[in-house]
Amino acid sequence: MWWLAVTLSGAAPAALGADDPGTQALQQHQLQRQQQQDALQLRMQQQQRGVQDPPADARQQQALEQLQINQQQQQQQLHYRQGVEPVGVQPSEGDGTRRAKAQMELQKAQQQSQQQLRRFESELQVQPGGTMDEPRKVD
User: Fold this and answer.
1) Rounded to an integer, what distance in angstroms lies between the CA atom of residue 74 and that of residue 119?
2) Dihedral sign, Cα of residue 61, residue 62, residue 65, residue 67
3) Deepest of 2, 33, 35, 135, by most Cβ within 10 A of its Cβ?
């Protein structure tokens, strides 16, 4: 996860579209904090599922572990994209417009992360008969 923070430290200011270094730092910090919270929430979901409904055998344990690894990788990929995608600020736009666009991008990133976490939670749901849902290849 440390590589994500390093990557975001260089890419986030440009992606967030702010000119003022103080504003850039604040927006970068907000994005990183949100992403850290998302990562913690995913780990908590995964641990809670493992405690509430532990796998019945080694095969199910291995499938669950692989699903969790895949989810963590997908989350890291989303966080990377959120940090490097440009906002699309025009040179003629004022500071207020740039700040508003940057705030909208932060909100969009938060929505994407929450949607992904809900999808991950549904992937961890156990079907009747003790088999897990097959993970989807989305993101």
Assistant:
1) 11
2) negative
3) 35
Tracing tokens 């290849």 back to the chain, one arrives at 137
Which DSSP symbol is given to 92?
A: T
Burial class (CB in 10 A: 0-12, 13-18, 19+), 26: middle
* Dist CA 61 CA 42 (whole Å): 18
Beta bridge partners of 104: none
SS3 state at 75: helix
Side chain identity, residue 49: R
In which region does residue 88 sit, left (phi positive, over 0), alpha (psi from -120 to 50) or beta (all else)?
Answer: left
Tokens of 112: 């994407």
The residue ranges of the chain whose pLDDT is under 50 are 1-18, 127-130, 133, 135, 139
- Look up residue 117 and give its two tokens: 């976490």
